[in-house]
């Protein structure tokens, strides 16, 4: 009785789970000696180990941190984490440059531009909409704009909105359209516009640099999981993006300043 109890305890399901897989395979159908007393020995044979025990051990092992050959725990990193960081930074920088272009298009120069009226808000029928949603603006010549409303009934509202804008335009009615002559800029107006351009350019540079810093911070978090060469390569690519978009912003502002100065 005692011998049977001991064997059942030793090879209980709970204890079997504690054995290594190799031991479970070796012990299958192996004779086991059990010393019942000082002069009595009984031999028992362990039944074949059920497969579910080994399989369960394998299942429980899943989810553990992987280890390299030296036994050091490692964390798997998605292969696209670097490109994603760079793509996010590029998208943010591109958005900053696009916002700069939209802001500069609002500035009046001595040259007619169809986009210079886009930011004007027109209220018609109790609804406020951007002018380019209400009318088609076209350039007749370098000094003249034509504003053709989609609904002739909104002609008066269009005229009031343009006159009220800070552009200093005074359009005249010409049938079912408005004709806006772009007056030459005064010296004071040129200086004021150039200051706005300079400030807008600096704001855009700061925005691009903030995007760069966010990307660099994200890359630093990968120091423990990516090789140093990969980290340096990512940092260089982000730096190159930063220089590229800052140059684009500066070139855009220089072109606007030239347009203002030349009238």
List the helices and strands and how they pair.
Elements: H1 2-10, H2 13-18, H3 21-27, E1 31-37, E2 40-45, H4 51-61, H5 81-104, E3 121-124, E4 127-130, H6 131-134, E5 135-141, E6 144-149, H7 155-164, E7 172-174, E8 177-181, H8 187-220, H9 228-262
Antiparallel strand pairs: 1-2, 3-4, 5-6, 6-8, 7-8
Protein name: Ribosome-recycling factor, chloroplastic
Family: Belongs to the RRF family.
GO biological process, one term: translation
Describe what this molecule looks like in 3D.
A four-stranded antiparallel β-sheet has the order 5-6-8-7. The protein has a two-stranded antiparallel ribbon with strand order 1-2. The protein has a two-stranded antiparallel sheet with strand order 3-4. A hairpin with a 2-residue loop joins β5 and β6 (144-149). The model is unreliable at 1-14, 21-30, 32-38 and 46-73 (pLDDT under 50). By secondary structure, the protein is of the alpha+beta class. The chain has helices spanning 2-10, 13-18, 21-27, 51-61, 81-104, 131-134, 155-164, 187-220, 228-262; strands spanning 31-37, 40-45, 121-124, 127-130, 135-141, 144-149, 172-174, 177-181.
Q: Percent helix among the residues?
A: 40-55%
The N- and C-terminal alpha carbons lie at a distance of 110 Å
What's the tally of helices?
9
User: What is the chain-wise order of helices and strands?
Assistant: HHHEEHHEEHEEHEEHH
Biggest sheet descriptor: 4 strands, antiparallel
Strand order of the largest sheet: 5-6-8-7
By CATH, the topology of the largest domain is Topoisomerase I, Chain A, domain 4
Q: In total, how many beta strands?
A: 8
The protein's oligomeric status is single chain
Reading off the top of the CATH hierarchy, the class of the largest domain is best stated as Mainly Alpha
Q: C-alpha Rg, in Å?
A: 39 Å
